[in-house]
Amino acid sequence: MSKHGRVLVAMSGGIDSSVAAVMLHEQGYEVIGMTMKTWDYASSGSSKKETGCCSLDSINDARNIAVSLGFPHYILDIREEFGDYVINHFTDEYIAGRTPNPCVLCNTHIKWDALLRRADKLDCQFIATGHYANIRQENGRQVISKGIDENKDQSYALWGISQQSLSRTMYPLGHLRKTEIKNFAKERGFVDLVNKSESYEICFVPDNDYRGFLKRRVPGLEEEVKGGEFVLTDGTVVGKHEGYPFYTIGQRKGLGIAMGYPIFVTEIQKEKNRVVLGKLDELSKDAMWVHKLNMVKYADPLTKTYETITKVRYNDDGALATITQVGDGMKVLFNEGVFAIAPGQAAVFYEGNDVIGGGWIQSSFKQEK
Question: How many CA atoms lie within 13 A of 119 on its CB side?
Fold first, then answer.
């Protein structure tokens, strides 16, 4: 075994995870590549050509990198556990009137556990991924911080990983920018990786049509929920909708409602099969409750109030907020209104570049002045 140790690298076949594997190999680690098969495109019902992390091409691309450098590569089939947990949760959340985040859920409950179990069998001390994030040990805690390339930073998707799992995790790309990673691949002759398109879709919704996916996944759902009311915040009925699971907080396009001014989805009322519409200012809330917490930088529970930058979605810049833990929940008070806070999405709390922790948005509200 290498003096640096043996590391299991999650390889999707894309440039980021491939460069992470190559980099660790060059640094003297004994690398083992692992590609996880999470989803079968044929069962999605989509007509889109199979691409992305679960496609045969991507698996072959990852294997070719391993073969070219002389380290082992394996395929890990986790379709059953992925489907039972991530996809069922995705479906259930939309039917409950919430907006799920399957990628965070998969990292938290499926991928890391699956990798670590296999790492143990292969006598690997560490696992590594191609995420743009950094990790360090401080005051006995494993602390996640933002990757140096803010346009690619993925720390938001990693808040749910346990301290025990983080203690064996490496993020080799956190100190690099995307341009540097592309140059790294070019210099080593992996030009195909540089030219390979990147997928930003949910892996099991390859056509990015989650409404179509739900209809195929839950036969009869469309007939059951169709024809509910579009209402304004004062209760005025302004039309009929296609079914509350097919709308998300903040949605403006595809409503089929003309009011003479911009109108947005501000609330989903599952029990009444209603979708509430409002103006932009009605979409703004300055407080929320977050539950199912996982603390990263500090131990749970937090013993004081923290001033943070809080993100309510992946591509959110974040907003200044004060967080206070109350029991097993977090009360978040924003300095100013935040648009489209959607129950079911992840909220992540930052102190500078460090992830304090995160949780799932339970509800939002306006502070009493």
Answer: 22
DSSP string, 236-250: -EEEE-S-GGG--TT
CATH, domain range 6-130+172-195: 3.40.50.620
Q: Note if 124 is an active site residue.
A: no
Q: Which of 53, 54, 124, 203 is catalytic?
A: 203
Please spell the DSSP secondary structure of 195-217, one letter per residue.
HS----S-TT-TTS-HHHHHHHH
Pick the CATH number of 284-365 from 2.60.40.3390, 3.40.1390.10, 3.90.550.10, 2.40.30.10: 2.40.30.10
Catalytic, out of 53, 54, 106, 124 = 106
- Tens of pLDDT, residues 319-358: 999 999 999 999 999 999 999 999 999 999 999 999 999 9
At 5-14, the pLDDT tens digits run 999 999 999 9
Average pLDDT over residues 281-294: 97
- Is 53 noted as a catalytic residue in this protein? no
